[in-house]
């Protein structure tokens, strides 16, 4: 729910309730006050009638009062003298219709007789007054609600504009890009503060990113340089004099160890980079094309081991780093070759939803730690990082990688859109 | 070839120097930013081997300096930074190639030779070696004017040997050159043997002498002797 919608809802609901309650209270009070005034008028009339009766010893003529009717009735016996007010109807003779009225029933004593006097006044005017007041109140309420709604809708939206623009910028924030998150000018203190905090945070993130990047760069540099020296010295050593076969074998071992160390180091750095999302050259790639060229690249390796390769590819484009895509394919292909049997089989299938690479191979019992770092089968020559890297790359792009063993085949599947 | 090696690691520089000197190659050395900058301004080189992290400055700045003064020197970046950004910005700035440490000297030599060859390319891109003629652009080889049909890998392999004449080249380096170093190849390079054998056989049948010698089981040497 949007902030303005929520605010509007609460605001208008409370305003309506308060205004309705006010209206009701207003109505009753005005009603009460007007009734009181009528009652006072009636009491004055009663007084006048009593004085008239006392002075002239006769009852005044009923017709001599405007908008009020007086009627007399002789009462037998004693009655109490307490005047009684009540709501009645008033018969308007001029217009000849019934109107709401208020009556006072009292008793006067005239020449030893008890005469009941009923004075009735029309309430039509006061009712009209109440109605007009009520209508005005309702009108004001409506206008108020509408204007509240409009204010909320337009003014609030305008007021929150800097917030939304900051939000938009935050969404499109990329750590590798230079430039501030928010530069919008606003006079609202809260938004100025928000912008400042967002910018400070972005700066901090960028600073961290730079530090991390320079750390990986430096670590890489510092460790690769000695390795480069060892490697180049070995190359130089090789050129010097003739060696015995035994020395040659020793040299080869050193070469291999150096090569492994370099690869290990590169793999670890790569893992760190993927985890920290430092590889940012994601682009649209023709995955089918990539797989095809990778198959060509591995051709000699397939032939060496007499592997039959079955390739079924359909068109598929992905958004990922070319470098990482290459690494993933390298790892999966190397795995399929390395853990295969002599004259075995590899099936490579690419569909819209998944890349599936299956290969024949020895039975593997413990597959739970397959994607863990440095976990490898005892006879494997690898470092046990290939699948860990592959999994990290998949995580980075939201793919799902899965391993299954079925019909004597080891099957790795990468699902590009695991949600569906 | 005249080559400038911009590298602050002395041990590494020495190896490169030793490997490149000879066969009419002249190597010069700069160990820091200022020396390198000076030499680049004063002289022309066929190829500059440029390390990125230098005392006194960034190697990439040297590159932009070079390009600003409109020099045609070839540039090969050798860096320990395996960072894509650096690789891309280096190539964007006009470097001809990018090689990540650690590398094989034979690979370095092959790449430098390729750059220099491209720079000096004047119509026909042909290397002559005794009775063998190699046309790099057309990708064909003739021995005494007899054409030899080679596969792409065999051709690449032969050019690689030619770039590393009289040097022992390890099987490891050859495999990385032909298949790329990202492939995570196993340490068993026996499949290379087939390629070398086929290459030797095809050249021999066309009448070439056997120049490729196996060395201590660790690699091969392309030599006249």
Structural commentary:
The complex is a heterodimer of chains A (420) and B (225). With 420 residues, chain A is an alpha+beta fold. Chain A is built from eight helices and eleven strands. Chain A has helices at residues 3-56, 124-171, 189-239, 245-275, 287-297, 299-304, 322-338, 386-397, and strands at 68-75, 84-92, 97-110, 113-122, 282-286, 308-313, 317-321, 345-350, 354-360, 400-406, 409-415. Chain A has a five-stranded mixed sheet with strand order 6-8-9-11-10. In chain A, strand 10 (400-406) and strand 11 form a beta hairpin. In chain A, helix 2 (124-171) packs parallel to helix 3 and helix 7 (322-338) runs antiparallel to helix 8. With 225 residues, chain B is an alpha/beta fold. Chain B folds into two domains: 2-119, Rossmann fold (3-Layer(aba) Sandwich), CATH 3.40.50; 126-222, Winged helix-like DNA-binding domain superfamily/Winged helix DNA-binding domain (Arc Repressor Mutant, subunit A, Orthogonal Bundle), CATH 1.10.10.10. Chain B has helices spanning 10-20, 33-42, 59-68, 84-92, 105-119, 152-163, 171-179, 190-205; strands at residues 2-6, 26-30, 47-51, 53-54, 57-58, 74-79, 97-100, 126-129, 132-135, 140-143, 146-148, 168-170, 212-215, 219-222. Chain B has a five-stranded parallel sheet with strand order 2-1-3-6-7, sandwiched between helices. A four-stranded antiparallel sheet of chain B has the order 8-9-10-11, with helices on one face. Chain B is globular and about 55 Å long. Chain B starts with a strand and ends with a strand. The chains are: A alpha+beta (420), B alpha/beta (225). At the A-B interface, helix 3, helix 4, helix 6 and helix 7 of A face helix 1, helix 7 and helix 8 of B.
* Principal-axes shape call of chain A: rod-shaped
- The secondary-structure element order of chain A is HEEEEHHHEHHEEHEEHEE
- The count of helical stretches of chain B stands at 8
Count of beta strands of chain B: 14
Domain count of chain A: the total is 3
Assembly type of the shown chains? heterodimer
Helix content of chain B: 40-55%
**Strand order of the main beta sheet of chain A, please?**
6-8-9-11-10
Name the CATH homologous superfamily of the largest domain in chain B: Response regulator
